[in-house]
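Objective 1b of the project was to move from sequence-level analysis to a structural picture of ligand recognition. The entry below was assembled by the postdoctoral researcher (A.K.) and checked by the PI before modelling. It contains the amino acid sequence of the target and the SMILES of the bound compound, flavin mononucleotide.
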Amino acid sequence: MVLPSGWAQRLRVPVVAAPMTGVSGPDLVVAACTHGVVGTFPTHNASSPQVLDSWLAQMTEGIAAGTPTGAQAAPLGANLVVHRTNARLHSDLAAVVRAGVELVVASVGSPREVVGPLHDAGVLVWSDVASLRHAELAIAAGVDGLVLLTAGAGGQTGWANPISFVRAVRDRFDGTLVLAGGVSDGEGVFAAQVLGADLAYLGTSFIATEESLAAPDYKAAVVAATLDDVTTSTQVSGLAANVLSSWLADQGADAGGGFAQDRLLGQGAVWAAGHSVSGTDEVVAVAKLVDRLVRDHQHARSFPDPSTRRQ
Ligand SMILES: Cc1cc2nc3c(=O)[nH]c(=O)nc-3n(C[C@H](O)[C@H](O)[C@H](O)COP(=O)(O)O)c2cc1C
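Corresponding predicted holo structure:
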């Protein structure tokens, strides 16, 4: 088990509020970091480099203001799309380094080019991967951690079974392992740890929080949906992504053609969500969501006997 140095004391539960296009902004990130889970956001949610600088300032100031003197907030991380079509990659990377972000999660491509500059600046680098081959390439590139995208994850998804994927990667990597896909409660977080992951990456559950940027009707649709209402489609970005079937039904035919950053950003309001909609039953403040995760994680840890399971 490998959490980055010093993180254990800063986290109330081993959870990352995962980066989400159109959903994660300053309020969500500040609430996550000040309530004891890692807060992250995709830099492309800021509409321009100027807005990104101002968001980063808002986040660092908000986190400092919300953290009692002498205490340490949970880490702040940024997600960078490292695909060649991301024209803002270099300027966004420079902005997150200037702001003192502790972690970058590289997605949609090889982290090879960003590992060096980020390590030079003292920033941890994780890469999200959906196959063993990509995990091995990321490990060879020198990443500190891997986010394993598994079947049922919201947004850009994986297809591997989480139990098999964690076991297979744990055998060949002793850095930080983060399980993404389907986790919505403390029991799921504990299950990820039992398998060999260090942290769980929760996206869908954080859509239905008061602090998320999601529109009210999207939050309500996430609350109303069950896992049967989730469909895998390439419509959003050209890559397989899990979305609410009700949203997909209103879209035109899939244009095809593979991933491009412009295509992702040009989509407008996408109702992405994963199988864990089934564990998301109301819109709550991040504080309440994290309190529940802490409570149920502690319960799962102390009463692993199935007969004592929470009803
Ligand atoms: C609405 C939405 C938008 C997402 N956007 C991004 C993104 O911009 N970058 C990224 O790396 N992952 C993105 N993801 C994936 C999440 O970071 C995470 O891997 C996933 O939500 C975990 O699975 P869960 O939804 O079952 O918790 C998105 C997920 C959702 C639900």
